[in-house]
Every structure is written in C-alpha cells, then in structure tokens.
Amino acid sequence: MTDVTRADYAVIACAELFRGAGEIVASPMGFIPALGAKLARLTFAPDLLLTDGEAHLVDRDGVIEGWQPFRKVLDTVVPHGKRHVVMGANQLDREGNQNISAIGPHAKPTKQLLGLRGGPGNTVNHRTSYWVPRHSRRVFVDRVDVVSGVGYAPANSLPYHDVYRVVTNLGVLDFGGPDHAPRLLSTHPGVSVEEVEAATSFPLDTSITEPTRPPTDAEHRLIREVLDPKSLRGQEVP
C-alpha cells in the first residue's frame, strides 16, 4: 500500500485506543479521532458505543441506535469508568496534565483559551486520551500553565483515573514508564525518534519504541472509500 498517508496512520493509532474496550461510550473530539472510533467499531471493537454528541447513540453513519440524554451520561456513564474520551490539548506535561484553559500566569494570562470545560471530570472519572495534530515543544511542555485535565501526580489513587495515550501527527505516547514516566510507544512512517524528542520539552523513554502499525487492506479501504472518501483527514494531518 504505497498510497498510505501519515493521516491514515494517525487514524489507525486513534482506532487502536479502543482495542479491547468492550461496551463503553467513545467520545472522540476531532475529525481523525472520530474516524478512528468509527473504524474500530467497524472492525475489532464492535461493542463500542458511539454518540452524536447530543442525546443519541448512533452507528458510523449517524443512524440512531439508542437514547442517551446528557443527564444519563453524567449520572451513569461518566462517574463509573464507562467512557473513553479523546480530548485535545494546548499543553501537556511530563505528568500527563493537560491545559486547555489559558497560557501564561494564572492571575494574568497572555492568552485565554476554552477554559477548564469537562477536563477535570473526564480525567478523574474514566479513561482519557489526547489527540495533538501538531506535535511541538509549545504543546509538550515541562509543566502546564493551568491544570485542566488531571495527570498522574495528584490522581494516582482515584479508581477510574486513566490517562491512556497521546496520539500525535508524529507518533504515539503514553505514561506507562516507572512512576508514570512518559514513553514513546511508536513513530509514524518517515518520523525518527530524534524528531519526536526534539519536538518534546521533557525526556521520553524510547526503549520500547516501534513503528506505528499500518492499516490492513480492509482498514485502508474503509478509511478511503467509506469513512472519509473526500480525504478530509489530510487537512488535519497533511
């Protein structure tokens, strides 16, 4: 498959976030994470539950499969580890803390962002991953300016806290090293370990780094012909 793109590998990496997940609610934020969740549902994670972001469970075409109002999500799904959200991040640090709130000193930030939003509740109540389409030292910082999503230092004892993985346009990271040290799990084709290290402000454990797995022929066809025939994924990861 000579026509597989970097964006295709990112979709595969996002799909792999849900391998073995079982019957949980997937909440992917971003076009490529959404493609990954739909691909997982169509292939190796048939029990995965997808939502329309409002009050319904849907299939990959948006056909309604069930009713799930927001109150039910907050009462029975979010607090009990039955959800896996893929959020964005303006900053991520070595302890897995996320910032989507503000850049600069908290008392007088230089840039106002989204605010805390659902970051604290997501990260302490169920599995959370992150999607970063532009891997850089501005995103992967030594310490975030504001903790929006809770990383490992203050949350080790919470029963459903699980900062799972970070998928970027360069590769896949997690916090599975000793004392939750950040690790580089894989690099996408054409990306070297050194390139990822240069784009990250904190050290990475690279002892188990391997290439991101390619899509199978069937997965590649689903991505190109069924899920994203207009190749919009290439606008997110050129």
Automatic annotation (TrEMBL):
Q: Give the highest taxon in the source lineage.
A: Bacteria
* Signal peptide (from-to): none
Q: Which SUPFAM superfamilies match?
A: NagB/RpiA/CoA transferase-like
Under the heading InterPro entries, the entry gives:
NagB/RpiA_transferase-like
Similarity section: Belongs to the 3-oxoacid CoA-transferase subunit B family.
Specify the protein name. CoA-transferase
Q: Which organism is it from?
A: Amycolatopsis rhabdoformis
